[in-house]
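Notes from hallway chat w/ T.B., transcribed later so I don't forget. T.B. wanted the structure written out for a chain they're using in a teaching module, and asked if we could keep both sequence and structure tokens in one place. Agreed to drop them here.
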Amino acid sequence: GIALLFAIMIFLGFEATALFRDEVRTPGKTIPRATYGAVLFVGTLYTVSCYLLTTAYGAGAVQAATDDPKMMFPSAIGHFAAPVFTQLTFAFIITSELAAAISVHNVTARYIYNLGVDRALPAAFARVHPRHGSPARAAVAVAVIVAVLVVPLGLANRAGEGLDAQLFGLGTVGVLVLMTLVSAAVIAWFTRKGVPPGANRFKCFVAPALAIAALGPTVVLAVLHFDLVVGGAPGQNLGLLLVLAASLVIGAGLALYFRSAKPQVFARLGRADTGEAEHLDAVVPTRM
């Protein structure tokens, strides 16, 4: 069960392709292809990596992973290729952390941008850079929010012990919960509205039901073994779950507010076109 939890965690991120539908000519075709391509690439990469590690250590693979999991890959590649590759591996880890941070920043900026276009946030966030067509204002807003949240955490934990794992684990569990709720919402939506022309029952009911069957127990495992996800002793960081609970309550409260007080905003949430941005005198992101 714990292995399944981490297997799902390492695949998170592929769902962000949907955020870039405004930047491609045919999102109905390009976005699914990009999503499936990302899943296949990540799956192949991890399968090959696991095979190579198992081949390198043989019968001692489990013991090596137990004794020093962080050095397992660098030691193997340094032994079979050249010692310099051990140091290169550490450099690649640092650059991959930077790449992951940039990716999260871009995805979050596009969430802010889309909410600005939907008028759920101030319309200023819907404006994009006049030259590059990027959601520049939303990106700056994300940078400011991250600084306000992360700088105090960094100052309070100058040793940096566990901070990266805590933030990553917290975000991961949040995405797992969100995916599970979205899968349930998909079934509820098509049950009420019916299957539209051109769609099929597998995508509307069977696929989200399978997702719930896989993600639901994974969320339970993540909560029961939260220390393995964020680090620390068992029960030490359970208070972080209050952040997720508060986010869920605030988000649901805002949705109910928009539905009752601003139905036009509620109806526009999640729109699949960029027409609203044009009404805001915003430059639609350059289509690739």
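Follow-up for T.B.: The chain has twelve helices and no strands. Might be a good example for the class.
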